[in-house]
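INFO batch 0412 | record 1 of 1 | parsing
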Amino acid sequence: MTSSCHRKLKMCLSRAIALLLLSVTFLTAARAQTPTRISLDDAIKLAIEHSHALKAAQSQIPQNQASEITANLRPNPLLSWDAQFIPIFEPSQLTSTFLNDNAQYDLGIGYTFERGKKRQARLAAAQDQTSVSRYLVADTERTLALSVAQQFINVLLAESNLDFAKQALDSYQKTVGISNERFKAGDISEGDLLKVKLQLLQFQSDVSAANVARVQGLAQLRQAIGYDALPDTYDVTGDLVYQSLSVNLDDLKLRALRERPDLLEANASVNAAGSQNRLAIANGKQDLGTTFTYSHVSGTNTAAFFFNIPLPVFDRNQGEIARTRYAIDQAKQMDLAASDAVLTDVYSAYASLRSNDEVVKLYMSGYLDQAKESLDISQYAFQYGAASLLDFLDSERSYRSVQLSYRLSLASYMLAVEQLKAAVGTRTLP
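INFO prediction complete | emitting tokens
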């Protein structure tokens, strides 16, 4: 192959590699610019995976599990030894005969036998505390899910308001165009035309305010989920929708008493308090110390056994036993208070759901259609000179107010649903 062919081949390869690199760069940039769209379930899942506050709470579980290891440890044996009557200051007497006949050597091993099943009591207390931590983490997840759901619905409301504001602005711009034609034709005065144009500022301001609310809502949602969990150009998917729930208050209360993690945590705290009391009683038992010693004295090998146990004359751990007994009563009262709080939360959330449900149904029963029909009539009449400008602008304001209020009612209903889920302690409702 000639040198010119080699040069042409190298040029072709260089161009192919450059084109490939350019394509990869373009695709990477396009992918980076493509917004990530997440649903409500995605948002909650991401928050559970990336929330630093939740991770901090979750670390308490392995910490308590490590405490279980410590609680289940037995006492270490004690090894002791000594050498006595060694003639260090008279080196001339330091002979094997002297060391065998005159010196003394002791080697002993001791062990403390725990009485009252202290180790079992320590382990049970540590395990009960781990159970409390598990329910605490579950309750942190519950509150985190509610917070994310609230922020997510706020974003949906902001996007719905933004879409409506853009539609209203587009529609009103057509009205301004028609008003210009009517002014040119002499159907309306210049003063009425100026009023129509000035009203356009309100629609433009609505679009700007709705866009700001959307951006702020997305930022707050990203903060609730975890800043690093989402790219800058993410968005949400979903709409403000009404979904009727067929729920019974008594059933919700029973389910909440079974599933609310903070109530289960209070129940577990009662068990943990009982474990602490049993541990205090066990610690009141005095441990037996034992030692076996081998001795070499004057050429004689002997063995000795030593035993010791404190006499529980003054300290029988009675103060800690009394304290933990009162702590059991405190935990029981906290458990009852938690039960009352759960029932109150369910009742309040249920009442809020029913109230918002009625409001949404009122809008859907005919008020939305009536507002739209009233606007269409006023707009048509104004365009053909059969209605005054004030009547038309009043219909515009009424329609805008009804639409915004309807969207707010939908958002309030969806928030009430999420609050009811959090109050019951479940993400699934019938």
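INFO post-check: Residues 43-424 form a domain with the Outer membrane efflux proteins (OEP) fold (CATH 1.20.1600.10).
INFO record closed
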